[in-house]
Design goal:
Shape: globular
Radius of gyration: 14 Å
Number of domains: 1
Strand content: under 5%
Order of helices and strands: HHHEEH
Structural class: mainly alpha
Distance between the termini: 28 Å
Number of helices: 4
Largest sheet: 2 strands, antiparallel
């Protein structure tokens, strides 16, 4: 990734993302919310492995979120959201 020095440069890079990249970023943030953290660094080693296993489980490379998205909410988050 390019070396980001200012917030404006970050926003420009953010605008250059493809739809799939933007969707992944949104999905990743959703998963962080499910674990109630702002970064995977804040998770214990066991929870961190579980987090990334779950991220991989419901994301289909090159396609996006699995059709089983509702399972994420039930299995991981334990709550319903408006995200789909």
């Amino acid at each position: 990734m390019k070396n980001i020095k200012t917030f404006e440069q970050y926003n420009i890079l953010n605008e250059e993302l493809s739809q799939l990249q933007s969707d992944y970023r949104e999905y990743f943030k959703f998963m962080l919310n499910c674990y109630d953290v702002k970064s995977p660094k804040l998770l214990s080693d066991g929870k961190k492995k579980e987090f990334f296993d779950n991220v991989k489980k419901y994301w289909i490379k090159g396609k996006g979120v699995s059709k089983e998205f509702d399972k994420i909410e039930e299995d991981i988050c334990g709550k319903k959201t408006d995200k789909k």
